[in-house]
Amino acid sequence: MSSWEPQSKKRRLDTDSGIGNGILNTKERFKPTSARDWTISIAVPTSIIASCVTREQRTTAAGSIARALAIFSVDEVVIFDDSPIEQRPRNFDPDAYTGDIEPAHFLEHLLNYLETPPFMRKVLFPIHPNLKSQGLLHGLDMPHHPHKDEWLPYREGLTLEAPPRSGKGTAVDIGMPETVTISEDIPPKTRVTLKMPDDAQGKPEPVNPAEPRTEGGYFWGYSVRKAKSLSDVFTSSAYEDGYDLSIGTSERGVPLSKAFPNHNQTATFNHMLIVFGGPRGLEFAAMNDPDLGQMGIQGARTKELFDHWVNVLPNQGTRGIRTDESLLIALTALRRLWDNS
Predict the structure, then answer these.
(1) Where is this region: Disordered (predicted)?
(2) Which residues, listed in sequence order, are joined to residue 192 by a DSSP beta bridge?
(3) Hey, which bits of the chain come out as E strands?
(4) Strand runs (DSSP E) across 4-75, as ranges?
(5) Residues sharing a CB contact under 8 Å with residue 236, sequence separation 6 or more, in sequence order
(6) Which of 2-6, 21-25, 95-99, 304-308 has the highest mean pLDDT?
(7) CA-CA-CA-CA torsion sign (69, 75, 81, 82)
């Protein structure tokens, strides 16, 4: 799936007829918060679906993760491989793959599928074995998943092969009865982010996909990144200066109340990262990371990777908590670090 980002100099767009009636007269359900540059990221291991016996169980586990990302407005999810080196697939080709599920690709595929606005999925996601049980997935209904009866100042669009009515530029499907026309020539099947006009005489314009968050104050979906190991989560960060606040979750960590004793104060950060372990914990991921092995970070020293090593649910009433359950528990407890409303 491809996406398009505008050059530094923005260009105006021409729209097809119907913008005023189709969009501007609808209601706005999502209210923006303060515009923000800071982000929340989580990292989950491939082993979270290793214990799933069937494709249906793996699919619903991926769906639960996606729901947590949407509910708590998480901006990025990183999928890291914590399996033993000798068990990892070599020369994996996702386009030619039709056999057993490869965990990292499976999770990446489904999480991207769910993040994409529903009206685009048929075009951007061809039939694939990973999507065989997609009917079990619950919708995320995030702000950038459009409803025909609501208005938002931004829209996601998909460029079309058919020429626009004006004959120039590119036609874009924005999930409404009428398409819009942009002056740029962009290849078909490309996802774009558009800022919509304030009145029927105005013209929409293409913007950076992050603008709805950084300037509009809207949660605008999440990005998905794969990491080859636990250490790669940090070293291959999408942010230039990496993550400046990292939290590792473990039943061997300190209670959240001790790690962050001030309940009424948010944390100071630009990019927060919360890392979850699989059934055998983050220590298992460190054990299967050659780079961490060379550094001597194994076992109890795994906590040295993080600014905070926390137990989000002390005195749990079960021997183990699944990672998808841990996501909801941890994000509920940690949310006060960035939102104490």
Answers:
(1) 1-20
(2) 157
(3) 2-3, 39-45, 76-80, 154-159, 170-173, 180-182, 190-195, 205-207, 223-227, 245-255, 271-275, 308-311
(4) 39-45
(5) 225, 227
(6) 304-308
(7) negative
